[in-house]
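Listing S7. Sequence submitted for prediction.
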Amino acid sequence: MDSGGDTDIAVTEDASTFQLGLDDLKRRGSALLVVGSVPTELYSRASKQMLGAPDEPRRRLLVLNDSTPLADRLDDDIQRTKEWTRVVRYSTLERSAAASSSPDAVPTAADTYERRVGGGLGQLGAELANDVTEFDSLSGGLSPAELRVAFDCLPSLLSRYRRDQVFRFLHVMTSHVRARNGMVHVWSPGDREDERNRLFEPLFDAVVELDVEGTEARQRWHLRRRDASSGWFPLES
């Protein structure tokens, strides 16, 4: 398995148990917590792999901060239409929602698949739930692992809301994606042992650690339900 894709990865523990766990994540839907005290560029590389290769028939939903360059998060060859790819730019500022819905705004090509969302957790949750529901309708029923969601905004939420509020938001969001047999990954900078990451870990089916050893970027997967882990293996470019 290529970080959530469809090829196998090497493991150093019980390979059969681990591979069965990976297959289960794709078949039943899953939520992945991606952690690590690494440059954001490494997370972007891992996330691209989790979103699937450009030639894979995936419905992709990316939830990004305003400042994140889309080129860093989405391969150029991925089909950028509202039917297949949607990008939500989230800001905690209420005015962002009003500005994005101005009746005088002239739509551009990007507006068909990229939009800005502002406001509170309830507004953001409702917008994402609507995207997932529309993807399901457009596909005539999503196949296992067809829906891929990347959520980059956890640090932004924690800067404004209490942890218990963010916990509930993540619980609802991940449950909604799982219900469509989709795969969502959430970026949480910092080590796995950080208090914040330990708090949120029970919401997720697996934890993906990112690390740098010397000049080599690497990753390690922990499947929580099967209590199985991979060894460290390279994070491909």
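Caption to Listing S7: primary sequence and predicted structure tokens for the chain studied. Confidence is low (pLDDT under 50) at residues 6-12, 95-107. The longest strand covers residues 206-213.
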